[in-house]
Amino acid sequence: MNLNQVTLPVTNMKKAVDFYQLLGFTLIVDTPHYARFECPEGDSSFSLSLETEAFKNGATIYFEHEDLDAWVAALKSKGLTFTQMPTMERYLWKEAVLFDPSGNQIKLYWAGENRLNPPWRVN
C-alpha cells in the first residue's frame, strides 16, 4: 500500500495555489474548486479543496527536505513567515513551522534515519 495524497481545505484557491507553488510543488490539476500538486521528490501528491463554510483543520502536514535550513532560508527570503525556525525536537526531527493562507499548519522537517527508524521503534 502507498499513500496517494492528502487533501487540505482552503478558503481562497488562488492564494493557496500560489503558496504551495512557492514552496516548490508542481501544479498538476487546476480548477476553481480543486487543485492537485506533485511533490518535487518521490511519487506523492497532495490536493486542495475549496471550502465555502468556515472550518478548522486540526491536521498537520509534514514535508521533508534534507537541506532544511537552506530551504527555510530561501522561503523566508521570498516573504514566507515562519512561527518556528528549524529546531531540533526531542523526538529527533528538526522542524520549522508555518501556516498556509487558510490556516493549515505545515511543518517542514528533516528526520533522516529517525523518520522510520527512531531509537524507540517497535519491533
UniProtKB/TrEMBL annotation:
InterPro entries documented for this protein: Glyas_Bleomycin-R_OHBP_Dase (IPR029068), Glyas_Fos-R_dOase_dom (IPR004360), Glyoxalase_1_CS (IPR018146), VOC_core (IPR037523)
Pfam families assigned to the protein according to its UniProt record, in alphabetical order: Glyoxalase
Gene source species: Pseudoalteromonas luteoviolacea S4060-1
Protein name (Swiss-Prot/TrEMBL): Glyoxalase
Keywords: Metal-binding
Secretion signal, residue range per the UniProt entry: none
Molecular functions (GO terms): lactoylglutathione lyase activity; metal ion binding
Ranges where the VOC domain occurs: 2-111
UniProt key word NADP: no
Superkingdom of source: Bacteria
